[in-house]
């Protein structure tokens, strides 16, 4: 549970860092530029702690997928970026990919049932 909370914190920090990136205006504004570096550093630190208890493939997929979704929403709503059907479809594909990775991870981590087939099942799972 702690890992997932740290992952959520990492996502919020990454989102905030990306907003600061937009406001830095190509590093021409000092405060947003400094904030961007600090927020990204904190985000990667939280992500680093999260992968102590969450598989790195899952943590990174969730971090990047939700980060992409959230910054897209911020871009559409806050920065008045254009919404196109292709952008919406692309974001949906990312979300579906994150869900599928989580489902695959859940299926792979289920214990093998004891019985006559258990050795064969274990060999097949490797």
UniProtKB/TrEMBL annotation:
PANTHER family: MULTIDRUG TRANSPORTER EMRE (PTHR30561:SF1), SMR FAMILY PROTON-DEPENDENT DRUG EFFLUX TRANSPORTER SUGE (PTHR30561). It comes from Paenibacillus sambharensis. Belongs to the drug/metabolite transporter (DMT) superfamily. Small multidrug resistance (SMR) (TC 2.A.7.1) family. Keywords: Cell membrane, Membrane, Transmembrane, Transmembrane helix, Transport. The keyword Membrane applies. It is a multi-pass membrane protein. InterPro entries: EmrE-like, Small_drug/metabolite_transptr, Small_multidrug_res. GO terms for cellular component: plasma membrane. Its main location: membrane. The chain crosses the membrane at residues 30-51, 58-79, 85-104. One of its GO terms (molecular function) is transmembrane transporter activity. It is found in: Cell membrane. The keyword Iron-sulfur does not apply. This is QacE family quaternary ammonium compound efflux SMR transporter.
């Amino acid at each position: 549970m702690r890992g997932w909370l740290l992952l959520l914190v990492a996502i919020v920090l990454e989102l905030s860092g990306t907003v600061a990136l937009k406001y830095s205006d190509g590093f021409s504004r000092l405060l947003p530029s400094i904030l961007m570096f600090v927020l990204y550093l904190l985000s990667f630190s939280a992500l680093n702690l999260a992968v102590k208890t969450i598989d790195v493939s899952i943590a990174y997929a969730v971090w990047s997928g939700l980060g992409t979704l959230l910054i897209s929403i911020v871009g559409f709503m806050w920065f008045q970026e254009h919404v196109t059907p292709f952008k919406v479809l692309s974001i949906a594909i990312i979300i579906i990919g994150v869900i599928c990775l989580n489902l695959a991870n859940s299926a792979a981590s289920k214990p093998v049932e004891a019985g006559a087939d258990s050795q064969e099942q274990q060999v097949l799972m490797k």
